[in-house]
Amino acid sequence: MQAALAASSPEDLRQPATLFPRTVDDFLAHAVDDDAVPEIPAARTESS
């Protein structure tokens, strides 16, 4: 990992560092949207 990072310029590292928070924000926004999906009710069992 250190060897890969050592070969990268500061600009190469800055771009992913800038995009990561946006990715997290998008993920969280979609996670909130998923909460709006109604749950499927559990199957009822009939007692005799």
How would you sum up this structure in a few lines?
The chain is mostly helical. Helix content is 62%, strand content 0%. It starts with a helix and ends in a 14-residue tail after the last helix.
Structural write-up:
There is one protein chain. The protein has 48 residues and is an all-alpha fold. It contains two helices and no strands. It has helices at residues 2-6, 10-34. It is elongated. The model has no long low-confidence stretch (mean pLDDT 77).
The helicity comes to 55-70%
The overall pLDDT, averaged over residues, is: 77
Ranges with pLDDT <50 over ≥5 residues? Answer: none
Q: Can you count the beta strands?
A: 0
Shape: elongated
Strand content: under 5%
* Structural class estimated from helices and strands: mainly alpha
Query: Element order, helices and strands?
Result: HH
Q: What is the straight-line distance between the termini?
A: 64 Å
Please outline the major beta sheet: none
Figure out the total of helices: 2
